[in-house]
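User: Hi! I'm working on a homework problem where we have to compare a predicted structure to a textbook description. Could you give me the structure for the chain below?
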Amino acid sequence: MFKTMNSTGMLGAAVLGILLVLPVHGWSGEDGQDHPALTVSAEGRIDVPPDKAVLSFAVETAGEKLSEVQQENQERLAKVLEECRTLQIPSQFIQTTSLNVIPEYPPPPRRPSDESLENSIPRIIGYRVVHQVNVEVRNLDIVGKVVDRVLKVGANRFSGISWGLQNEQPTKLEVLKQASAKAQAKAETLAQALNLKLVRMINVLEGEVSLVPREGRYRVASMAMAMESGGEASVSAGEISIRGTVTLVYEISQK
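Assistant: Happy to help. Predicted structure tokens:
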């Protein structure tokens, strides 16, 4: 009733069983073998003039009653926003970044050893409200005027200026292209110097592409001095740097 399977049939069934349990992988550019490799990295960098400035202001008010402190803060902020509209800054370029209400306490007294914990809890004597606003200015000719006017009408804190680009993507792509060409040239130079052959590229890694102001943030002190002298703050945009890195990995062999 039962037939005995010959050795050839048993071998075929075993192979089929192994194939069924093996995982199936997509193509990854690797053949599963270890090869000698050369790894090179290079940085691309492009310096460009900025076409926008982000000014960071704050309106800070303080007093005993929270409602009065908030009311004063709102009134001062309204004057700041109105001045921005007068300078033709669109409302979508004005953004509240933080709004903090901070209770104020008297200096803590030295607590006698017999004083209860309940009596030692500090009481609130007032409030401080800080409304932080970022204003994006795309007409760089009026940056100094914006700083001057906004501080005069209501803002009483100025954190500085951040320079940037309205559209960073084209410059970032050019930086990556530059970094890739430099990395490839470096690999070819090393291979020639070491009498190696670049067989194929087996991996490409993109590093972070970032915008770096060359001159940093402007100091508040210099602008305050300019405004106290009766003139507008003198502002120079300078240039900003876009930097990025690319790493290439090549399989190599002896020539």
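For your comparison, note the following. The radius of gyration is 33 Å. Helices lie at 7-21, 66-86, 143-153, 169-193, 220-228. Good luck with the assignment!
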